[in-house]
Specification:
globular, Arc Repressor Mutant, subunit A, binds zinc ion, alpha/beta, six-stranded mixed β-sheet, 15 strands
Length: about 300
């Protein structure tokens, strides 16, 4: 049973929007694409787990926990009857090798953060957390390499790696152990959900200003700004994607809100932001329908 779903972090969303509306520096772009790739891998694991895992289990995704002032993040946490699995999902591709406790790309020689140190630290902190809560569970940690195009050379057998070729077996092995959940499992799940830190801070964003960003409505599928209006929809000239005008406006309002949390939502602002051949009346109508107007006439804003 899925108890906590995964959603894109605000950082990933903001970078995704900025990438469409401005030129990111190579370093920013690299960071952004890494986040996209990581998220894609996690979603892929979620789908696989939902498909293959049987028996009673709780699944909590993307937890940020704190114990004794140390923060740690768990991509996927699976509570079974006899064990709690902490999984770190890595979407690396290509050939990598381990040297000592360092992970390198064979092609570029680039060093990656060693996921084992990270998951071991999470495991230790998580056990401490359970101890603080006076809960007694067996904890197991794994680093899951989700990308089928990934190979790891010199992988020691005593490390908690699940390579792409082992992933189905890892899930099947989980299935082999019968799992019935009771009150104690429910309690630990509820505890973890309540302890999840919902910070979602926008820490590493590039600098940007309103004036600097391209205005306009772009295709939600291919991100092209070449969209035309037909009846009630935006039609993408590049890929043919349709989107209802109302949906597209709301999508752009959300984008504006995330990028400029300090700015008030007004008809004029959203009209400028969307910069498209629609009357202000249309924007006003959509805003009124989905948001609450505050104030009157020209100074009305929406929450
Ligand atoms: Zn398109």
């Amino acid at each position: 049973m899925l108890l906590k779903e995964r959603t894109e972090s605000n950082e990933l969303l903001a970078l995704r929007y900025l990438n469409t509306r401005m030129e990111l520096s190579p370093k920013e772009k690299f960071h952004y694409l890494n986040l996209e790739k990581g998220y894609e891998g996690e979603v892929k694991f979620d789908r696989l787990a939902a498909e293959r895992l049987k028996e009673e289990r709780y699944i909590l995704n993307d937890l940020l926990l704190e114990v004794n002032n140390s923060y740690f993040q768990i991509d996927s946490l699976i509570i079974s009857q006899s064990v709690i699995h902490l999984c770190d999902i890595k979407n690396l591709e290509g050939d990598c090798y381990l040297e000592g406790d360092k992970l390198f790309s064979k092609l570029t020689g680039r060093e990656y953060q060693n996921p084992v140190n990270q998951i071991k630290r999470s495991g230790t902190l998580f056990r401490q957390l359970l101890q603080n809560l006076k809960l007694n569970f067996l904890v197991d940690v794994s680093v899951i390499f989700i990308n089928p195009e990934f190979t790891l050379y010199q992988a020691p057998m005593d490390q908690p790696f699940i390579l792409p070729t082992q992933l189905n077996r890892f899930l099947d092995d989980l299935n082999k152990t019968p799992s019935m959940l009771h009150e104690g499992h429910k309690k630990v799940a509820q505890n973890l959900l309540s302890l999840h830190q919902n910070t979602n801070r926008l820490t590493t964003l590039p600098k940007y200003t309103y004036d600097q960003l391209s205005k306009g409505i772009y295709c939600k599928n291919c991100k092209s700004f070449l969209v035309s209006i037909r009846n009630n929809v935006f039609l993408c000239d590049q890929c043919g994607e349709h989107e209802k005008i109302e949906h597209a406006i709301l999508r752009n309002v959300k984008e504006f809100q995330l990028l400029f949390p300090e700015k008030k939502i007004t008809t004029q602002r959203i009209y400028e932001w969307c910069n498209v051949d629609l009357s202000k009346k249309t924007f006003s109508r959509v805003l009124k329908k989905h948001y609450t107007p505050i104030g009157r006439t020209s100074s009305t804003y929406y929450v």
